């Protein structure tokens, strides 16, 4: 069964939205196959966001993602990777459609601040496998 990797980001936990976000995934039919609360360490985040570490805004993302506990985990189901991406909506909450998690629960960030958009989802099957290996080992 296809698996995708998720992170419920620090804003999700701080705002008490864990139940609502997980409920959406479960109601859709995605099965939680792993889940763990973590305080992210920067070296692991750097591996996870290897394509972003050299961007000028990466330090604010890194500070945001390590600003409080997160929940990491995996969802399984047919087409789980695309299903969870579609449920999240666009990266920038100002572009995310109503009905998506980011469109319903997040607002645009102020200039120079990290985009706080509730949750992460792998963007492809290859990314999912890479990320699951980083966070959980094979
Ligand atoms: P994604 O989460 O929709 O896959 P990515 O481009 O992979 O988006 O970026 C990872 C995360 O980094 C985003 O979810 C967001 O929290 C943050 N981010 C991305 N681009 C920016 C930016 O231009 N400014 C601030 N934060 C950003
Ligand atoms: Mg991404």
UniProtKB/TrEMBL annotation:
SMART domains linked: NDK
EC identifiers of the protein: 2.7.4.6
EC category: transferase
Reaction equation(s) it catalyzes: a 2'-deoxyribonucleoside 5'-diphosphate + ATP = a 2'-deoxyribonucleoside 5'-triphosphate + ADP
Domain Nucleoside diphosphate kinase-like: 1-138
Family, as annotated: Belongs to the NDK family.
Protein name: Nucleoside diphosphate kinase
């Amino acid at each position: 069964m296809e698996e995708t990797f998720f992170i419920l980001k620090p804003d999700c936990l701080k705002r008490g939205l864990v139940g609502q976000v997980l409920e959406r995934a479960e109601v859709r039919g995605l099965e939680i196959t792993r889940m763990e609360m973590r305080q992210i360490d920067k070296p692991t985040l750097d591996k996870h966001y290897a394509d972003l570490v050299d961007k000028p805004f990466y330090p604010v993302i890194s500070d945001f993602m390590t600003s409080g506990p997160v929940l990491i985990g995996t969802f399984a189901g047919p087409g789980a990777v695309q299903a969870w991406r579609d449920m999240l909506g666009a990266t920038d909450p100002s572009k995310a459609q109503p009905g998506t998690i980011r469109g319903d629960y997040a607002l645009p960030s102020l200039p120079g601040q990290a985009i706080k958009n509730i949750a992460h989802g792998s963007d492809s099957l290859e990314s999912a496998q890479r990320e699951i290996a980083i966070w959980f080992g094979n």
